[in-house]
Design goal:
Elements lengths: L6 E11 L6 E12 L4 E6 L5 H8 L7 E6 L15 E4 L11 H11 L4 H14 L15 H14 L4 E5 L7 H17 L3 E6 L2 H7 L2 E6 L3 E7 L6 H16 L10
Parallel strand pairs: 3-7, 3-8, 5-6, 6-7
Antiparallel strand pairs: 1-2, 1-4, 8-9
This protein binds adenosine-5'-triphosphate and magnesium ion.
The site of magnesium ion has 3 residues, from helix 1.
Length: 260
Amino acid sequence: MSTDPFIRFRDVSKEFPRPDGSGTFLAVDRLSFEIARGEIVAVLGKTGCGKSTMFNLLAGLIEPTSGMVDVTGHDPFREFAYFRGKIGIVFQNDRLMPWRSALDNVLLGLQILDADKMEAEATARGWLTRLGLAGHESDYPHALSGGMRQRVSIARAFAVEPEILLCDEPFSSLDEMTARDLRSEFTRLVKQNGKTAVFITHHINEALEIGDRVMVFHRPARIAYEARMDQTSGEAERRNVQDRILEVLSLERSVDAPQV
Ligand SMILES: Nc1ncnc2c1ncn2[C@@H]1O[C@H](COP(=O)(O)OP(=O)(O)OP(=O)(O)O)[C@@H](O)[C@H]1O
Ligand SMILES: [Mg+2]
């Protein structure tokens, strides 16, 4: 197995033009990190610290102002088409198409990849079943609960068999019990299928439950703290990490505070 990192940010910065035209705004500040194949990395940080901007850079939706983003040896922005079917995304809101049934929503990614029609349908049905949605294939999103819709979007992301899963606060609008179920379902599926995942959240417990590693961002996006979790980490160890994360987050100026 190659020891090269699977995902690498090297000195990545992203500036946006300010809406009032007065120069630029730095959202990501010389961010560097590496993620190995098979890792689940949770990214934690206060609102506005640049998590989604990092996510969009990783997904190739926006271009860095400077620095290098490398995913499996390719540039996700410049080689966007190369990543079709290789990156699965689960967004904060399910982003399902309201006029397509659950099955047709899951089929969408497979159709874009020109998969064989019969095979695609079997795959989509299989994923809906694995996510506890057998019997709901023909339901439209409006007839499904928030948790069920989010399951459909997870099924949609996994159905194309991507190597990498990117999740931007996918469970934040769900009640805690449903979120907990989906979290363990998600980590099980990632591990079982040998995927690599980046999971953004602003819940400390969620980050600790999901991540093999937790990266805490300060604003503009840069790593303020990092901890590696492993299954054998005891309760005291987790509490320690939790306290440290709380401390690191509380050191940061609130987003609403005046900028100097
Ligand atoms: N397209 C854009 N144009 C201008 N500014 C932007 C753009 N996208 C993001 N920003 C700014 O960059 C900063 C970081 O935003 P981002 O959405 O990455 O934060 P976040 O950490 O994901 O926050 P949240 O937890 O609320 O989702 C914010 O101040 C935001 O206003
Ligand atoms: Mg965000």
